Amino acid sequence: MGSHPINLALRFLLEIAALLALGVWGWQKSEGWLRPLLAFGIPVVAAVLWATFRVPGDPGAAPVAVPGILRLIFELGLFALATWSLYSVQAVILAWIFGTIVVVHYIFSSDRILWLLKQ
User: Where are the transmembrane segments (predicted)?
Assistant: First the structure.
């Protein structure tokens, strides 16, 4: 089910939402010249890391191949950080909604999780 087109679309939307959440956190928690730097810099760094450290055989190229368990930890960490970011900027309901959708996504991605753990 993890490779079902609807689940893949949900995963993509979660990735975009996570980057937006990190950007909002950077904007809300800083001032002056640091505000735009963090608001744009944090999501860019996260996106570059997301695209760089990949498991061979997962969709897309793997510029830096990592074991599946490390990729899974990275993904869960990024989504957890995004959830915390929303909570930290007082978007508590959004944080709960986002976190719940992430959990549901990973429940429906159990085949991918097992695949990652075997890599």
Answer: 9-27, 33-53, 60-81, 87-108
